[in-house]
Structures are given as structure tokens and as C-alpha cells.
Design brief:
mainly alpha, iron ion sequestering activity, metal ion binding, Vacuolar iron transporter, iron, transport
Amino acid sequence: MGNNNYIDPEKLTLLLEDQKESSKQIIVKHFKSSETVRDIVLGVSDGLTVPFALAAGLSSADVPSSLIVVAGIAEVVAGAISMGLGGYLAAKSEAEVYNSELKRKNQAIINDPELEAATTAEILLKHGIEPHESEPAVKALRRNPELWLDFLMKFELGLEKPDPLRGLISGVTIATSYVIGGSVPLLPYLVFPIAREALIASVVVTIIALMIFGLAKGYFTGSNPFKSAILTAFIGASASAAAYYLAKVIKH
């Protein structure tokens, strides 16, 4: 009579490899979408808020709209470069951490395979696979070092292989989002030559944009869209009001 608890190592290896490929596609799609949303949120939120506050502050100083546009454009360009570079470096750092851990774990498998085999068995036990069931699974993984390494990186360290283009994509996405967001509060100053008139239009347009952005952010991040809209608009309005009255106090 056969052992019902026996797991065919060859079948297990094929199953893990198939699962690896299918789950990789799902994970890559999920991470790319979530990371892109995060980058867009970061770029647009700062782009809407910082130039808005700068324009409001300069408006209180009674400077012409043309000067505010020049200063605003300079800030948007500098901010986009800074934010984009920050996103690029952050993604590069994540890739460096992953590669460092990958080398360390690969060396650990070579130097002390028994310890790593015990670690693998512990991981499987946490997922409800008993020792007598996990033994053939561990043996199957040990015969496939690449699959074993991938298994330990995911389930022991919780690390996924980053996209090699992630840094570039992140930097460009954040910078572009910042420019798009930053152009909104500056547009009224291109229409109205008097700064105070442009400020009123800028406040209305930017608050509407912040609320729409807040709704979209809430929808994509899974939070309450209306609460997100109100909070986003409140933060942007608070920043611009603080800049406006601070400039007034300094002027007087």
C-alpha cells in the first residue's frame, strides 16, 4: 500500500517552477501597477502643493504675475529634477539591497546547505506542511539550486527581484507627474496679469484639482475616496495659506 504522504520530488520541482512563472507574472503586474500609482501620487501631490504655496506666497508680496510664472517654472523644473532623481536613487538602492542579499543567501546555500535546508523545512512547517511531508520537498529544492535560492529569497527574506528598469521608470514617472501637477496652480497667472486676481483663480482651480486627485488616490489605494479628497485639499490649502500669510508678515 502506497504512502499517501509521499510527495514526488520531480513533480514537486515542476510544480514549483510552474508556480514560480505564473506567480511571477501576477506579482510583476501587481508591483508595477502599485509602484506606478505610488510614483504618480508622490509626484502629483507635491507638484500641486509646492508651486501652489510658492505662488500664493509671492502673490501676497504684490509682485506681477509674470514674475510668479518665472519663479514657478523654475521651482517646477528644479522640483521635478530633485523628485525624479530621488525616485531613481531609491529604486537603485532597493535593487542593490536585493542583489546583496541574493549573493549572501547564495553563499549561505553553498557554505552550509544543511542549515538552509533546515530553514526551508521551517518555512514549509509555517505553511502547514509537516516534517514528514516537507522532506521530499526540501530534497527536490536542493536538486534545483536556482529554484531553491528563489524560494528562500521570497519566503525567508520576503524579497522580490526588482525590475532592472525600475529606477529609470520611477524617476521619469515622478518627474513627469510633478510637472503636470505643478503646472495647474501656475496656469491662472498666465491668464491674469494682476497677481491677486490670478491667486483667486489659482486657489479655485488647484483646490478642485486636489480634490479630484484625492478621489483618484483614494480609489487606487483602497482608502475612502471622499476622505482622501478632503484631506488632500486641506493639506494643499493649508500649505498655500501658510505661505501667503508668512510672506505678508515678512513684508510688513
